Structure formats: C-alpha cells, structure tokens
Amino acid sequence: MPRRICGVWTQGEIWLHNASDFFIWTAYLAIPIVLWFFWSRRNSGVPFRSLFLLFGMFIIACGTTHLMEIVMFYHPVYRLAGVIKFVTAIVSWATVIALIPAIPRALAMRSPDELEAEVRARTAELEVINAQKDELLEREQRARRDAENAKNAAEKANRAKDEFLMTLSHELRTPLNAIQGWASLLDNENLPEDAKKQGLEVIQRNTTAQAQLIDDILQVSRIITGKLLLEPRPTELFKSVQLAISTVEPVAHTRNVALEIAPLERDILVMGDAARLQQIVWNLLSNAIKFTPSGGQIAVSLRKHNGEALIEVRDTGQGIEPDFLPFVFDRFRQADSSSTRKHGGLGLGLALVRHLTELHGGRVEAFSEGLGRGATFRVWLPLLENSALDEHENAGAEFSEDNRADSAAQSSQALRDLQILVVDDESEARSMVATMLQLHGARTLSAASSAQALRILEQQKVDLLLSDIGMPEENGLQLIQKVRRAGEGSTLPAIALTAYVSHQDRDAALRAGFDSHLAKPILPDALVGEIRRVLEL
Fold first, then answer.
1. In which residue ranges of the chain is pLDDT below 50?
2. What is the rounded CA–CA span in Å between residue 36 and residue 22?
3. Which of 24, 84, 208, 451 has an alpha carbon within 20 to 30 A of 399's alpha carbon?
C-alpha cells in the first residue's frame, strides 16, 4: 500500500517530503559527478583512488534511497527498496573499511602550511642551484679566458725566449769574433807593434765584456732560484759609489760623455753587501753611458732624503718611452730588441739593479719624460742606525787591509820565493795560470790530474795548492780531501780556481778543505791578491 494512503497527509506535507527527497537525490547524484570530473582530470595524481570510487558509489547509493522514498510514496515496491538499502549498506561498510587504513596515511600527509614551507624551501634550493649554475658558467668562461690568456702568454714567452736566444747568441759571438780575429792576427809576424798593442787591448776588453755577460746571466739565475746570497755588513755608501764611478770613468771619457759628480755625502751607513751595492751603481752608470750620445752628460748624487739613503743617476740620453717605462726593470726586456737596434746587451743590468736593491730592503724608481728627454734612476736604501758604527769601523779596517793586499799584488815580486802547484786538466788554462804566477815571482809546478798532483806533493815542498774542481777520474774536491788526510798536507794552503761559481759550489769547496774559492775567469791582480791574503803575506 502506498505511503500516501497509509497516513494522514496533507497536500503540503506530500510536496515537502517529495521535494526534499528529490533535491537530496539530485545533490547526491551531483556530488559523484563532480568527483568523477575531478578524478578524470587528475587521474594519475589523485591520492586514495579506490576510496574516491567507493565514496562515489556510497553517495550514489544514499541518493538512490531518497529517490526510492518518492517512488514508495506512490508505489509500494518494498523489495526493490530493500535491495537498494542492502547495496547501500554494503557500499557504506566497504567505504568504512577502506577509510580505516587510509586514516594514518591521511594523517601523515603534510598540511598546506607545511607544503607551502616546503615549496619555499625548494624554491630557495632552486635559486641556490641556479646561482651555482651561473657561478659555474662564469668560472668556466673565466677558465676559458684564463686558458686563452695563458696560451697568449706562452706564445709571447716563446717569442721572448727566441728573441733572447738570438740576442744572447749575438752578444756572445760579438766579443768572440773580436777575440778570435785579433788572436789570429797576433800570430802574424808582420803585424806592427802598435797593432799588436791594440789587439791585446781589444782581446782584454772583449774577454772582460764576455765574462761580465756570463756573470749577469748567472746572477739572474741565482735571483730567480732564490740562491743569490748577500754578505751584509755596515757599509759606507760613499765608498761603493766612488768605486763604481772610478770604474766607469774611462769608458765615459772614451765615449765623450761628461760625468758630473755632485758632492757625495759621507757617513751614510747602510747594512749591505759592499760589492753588490757597487754593482748597483755600476749598472746604473753603465746603462746611462750606453744610452747617452757623445757630448751628453750624466749626473751622480748621493744624499740622505726623508730618513733614507738616496742614490740618483740622471742622464741626457735617449730617454724612455712612456709605454715601456713600467717594464724597464723586467728581465730580458728591451725597448728595442730588433736586429737593427743601436745598443747591445741582454736587458739584464736594470733587472739586477732592482733585485739587488730589493734584497737590501730598498726600492728603485725610473723617470723619463719620453724619447730624447733623458732618464733619471733613483735607488732608495734604508739607513743604518748609529749603534752599528763600531762594527762599521772594524769593517773599514778590514777594507783598508784588503786595499793594502791589492796594492801589494801589483808588485812583480809579490810572490817571490813561493813554490805553487797548479792543478788543471786543461793544459792551456794550466799554462796561463802558471805564467801569471811566474810573472809575479813565483816558481810553479804543474799537474794535469789529481793523481799526478799527489805524486808531486810527495816529492816536492809546495807553499800553495791552486786546483781546478772539474777534472776527470778524480775532481778537485776529492784531491783536497786526500791532501788534508795526509799528515804533511793537512795544513797546506789551498785555493780552488774553478768555473763552478754558485754559492753551493763555493760552500762545497770550503767544506772539502780549500781555504778559498775563486771563480774563472780571473785577472792576475785578483789572483795574486787572493794568494797573498790566504798566505797572510
């Protein structure tokens, strides 16, 4: 029996119930449609997909029960209504069962605030990654630029090396050509006496130039490797400057260049190596003479300025281009390195000036207003406190003693009655040294090897041993060690005369037992002076 007959229903109540059930049914039907639309659009990213399906079926089943309420109001289909309710119950419990394991998963899901924080964190990470990417890109570009610059620098260095080797070859061959040419001419009996004298002067001048060139190269090598050592002592700059001036005066006179020497201040003390300080001034003066034309002038001054010692060399020469001025103290750098250049040299003199000045704790500066305007070089050195004056006076006494020894070396009989053993495997070098000694009154014995020298020492009384280091079979170091172990040779004065000239070579010679170490080539006066010093004559 329909429900509308079973009860007392007014027309308004009938419409109220049926309308409510209808709208509930349509709402229940609309909800799964909306869920299906969402699910179909986000099929791969929707969590709890099975729960979505069950929930949609549950809502449809619930909505159908409300639809059956309207039908049952007019038609009593109780069995169909019971089936629908049974299906609704099954779907409802299936949804409940599916919800139970989903609850922990849902509780584990992050809240919107947490998700937003994570998004911000990830955004920050991405910004950092992007910044790192940009930095890596910039570093890669910088590395490419550096590689390109390094390539260009290497190519430039190779060109500079080739230019240097060509210049070195030229500078070595030039004096060799003069030496070889005049040596062959001197062998001609028909050569006039004045030409022979000129030839000897040319040979001496060019051997000195070549020795200076080789010494400059060795000094630069020692500076680069950090092996150039100074022997600092309280030094009066006046003496070093005066000695350097006296050395270059003949060259300046020959080139018709006037040396204007301002009054040099005395009593300017610095802590330095006197020989190296003299070399600094000598290099500056030699450079000024080389680049100053005939009739030019060079002014030299020494004074105290702002608590420092100031050495100034100013010339009226060709000057320095502004573009080259920052590189004037660089090694092997020359304003003109072409084959048509007017001036020779390797570009080492001013580099040595800078390095030697810096080793003394000073600095060097160059000024020029351009080509044809001359140049000015200033060397600044730290002054020595007056507390070192006593030590300076002792050094001055030693300097005077050395001068007296050098003066004595000028005598042709400075080595009279001395018997000296000369050991060298090179016969020409051995003969030359023996001749030097004989011209100063010494008697000489010669040996071509260490074994021969030992035999002579067993048979002859010798006042001094003068030995080369580099010899075949047994070198000079081994020779002096054997001499020192022998009873009579333990106190024999000995000097090493060698082309091995580094500080390490000198120390090795002294440790082996030599009393002194002299570098080849050597002039007679220097050799005789050192012999007299060792023998305390």
1. 335-344, 387-389, 391-392, 395-410
2. 21
3. 208
How many angstroms separate the CA atoms of 182 and 177, rounded?
8
What sign for the dihedral angle of Cα 473, 478, 480, 485? negative
Which value, in Å, is the radius of gyration of the alpha carbons in the chain? 51
- Per the structure, the complete domain to which residue 300 belongs is given by 233-394
Yes or no: say if 485 and 504 are a contact pair by the CB < 8 Å rule. Answer: no
Report the alpha-carbon angle 217-223-225, nearest 5. Answer: 105
Looking at 86, 109, 132, which one is the last position of a domain? 109
3-state secondary structure 146-184: HHHHHHHHHHHHHHHHHHHHHHHHHHHHHHHHHHHHHHH
Please tell me the predicted confidence (pLDDT) of residue 3: 58
pLDDT of residue 7: 59
Q: How far apart are CA 354 and CA 381, in angstroms?
A: 12
Amino acid at 485: R
Which pTM was predicted?
0.49
Residues 198 and 95 grouped into a single domain: no
* Eight-state DSSP code of residue 48: S
Q: Count CB-CB contacts under 10 A for residue 437.
A: 24
